[in-house]
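Sanity check

After download, print the first record. It should look like this:
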Amino acid sequence: MVGAALGVRLGIRLGISPVLPALLGALVGPIFLTWAMLFALEAVSQSFLVLTGGKASGGLERRKDYSLAKSLEARGLFAEAVAAFQTAQMENPGDPEPLLQAGRILRDSLGKPEEAAREFRRAREMEGIMPDREIAITRELIELLQRRPETASRAISELARLAERYPDREVGRWAATEKAELRERLLGGEADWEESTDEQPRTDEQPRTDERPRTDERPRTDGSPGTDE
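Expected structure tokens:
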């Protein structure tokens, strides 16, 4: 209707029959208005994302597709997939997902737990990360550190951190309990190890060479019947 009215007005001003401009306006008007509305909505959404630091409504981080990195992982090109996720993180510095995915590949497919732990920490320390996401990443990091005795003490530190940050939440209480149990297991393991090493036979308790029969104890030749008898 707006397009038709504008067409009639244009025809009157040009001194021609308003029928044709009205028909053209009725056809073109809705298309133009639709395009203008879409353009305005896109501009508003971009402004909103800039103001919220790249987060969508409800406080959830924007999630990307990362199809290239995932396709490399699916084809068994794990090192290339890690590199692709790390590149994606540089292109999307506000999203912890690529670092988390890179850490999982390093942990599960490449057998590099130290590098995996580094990626998990980088993802967790990202500015503006939501608490629930931080907790989930920290739990993955704790599970990774608990797998090896040489890093179990670092798992205790992570559990303590989780318990201190969320003392009133169930995850905080779990972390406090798990920390105490893990510390007890570590102490018990050290004691068992010391006891087992003390019980191992010492190498210096092997029979000494001087306890073997002496060669001079063999029957002497002068014990045989003498020639003077």
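If your output differs, re-run the checksum step. Summary of this record's structure: The mean pLDDT is 74.
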